[in-house]
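User: Predict the structure for this protein chain, please.
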Amino acid sequence: MADVTDDDHAHDHSHERHDHDGHDHAHPAPLAPDDPRLEAVRQRLEDARSAVRPSGLAAPHASGTVLPGSIPGRVDVVVSRRLSIPRPHAWHGLTTSDGLAEWFGTIDSGPSGGTATVTMLAEDGHPSVDLQILACEAPGLLVVRMGDWTMEVRLDVDGEGCFVAIRHVDVDPAMVGEVGPGWEYYADRWLAAATGGDPTAVDFAEYHPAMAEHFTRQL
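Assistant: Here is the predicted structure, written as structure tokens:
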């Protein structure tokens, strides 16, 4: 086989930008470091990296709804999540001290009726609040009065998991911008605990005040 000479290389390279139909197909010029298209790519990569947090969850977004309350001039705030665990497991996470402690706080007794005390572990100073059990229908419904708040939590079977709806009943409309983001925050802590993530990595600063408008504009 004959050796390929420099002239042969020069001849070959002179035609490397032509295809068989004789048209030019120039290689695209490299993007400059300050090209805005590069910055857009960098941003997409950063978004992809930050989409899943240490909590095991995607970046938070508000999804709750504001509905008419049972008292004139008051509203209900509803925040829902799908948990990929069976309903009895989710019920354990809601109604036992060790389960609730993973995402909300400890209780001094199980919700079998009467009253209890909840220590809110995710709040500064870990305040304690009196808890009165108004209804408990395992494993699908828990209604409690917590301090001045009335809460209803429903768990419905959804395939192999369950659908959870947290309903804060008869909220003062002036408080919706705080109550809504607060329950989005706690719902995501519960979701993180249920899926093996880290509830402590859920950052309240990402919920309030950023999510307040989502709720106030529904009034």
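Residues 1-21 have pLDDT under 50 and may be disordered.
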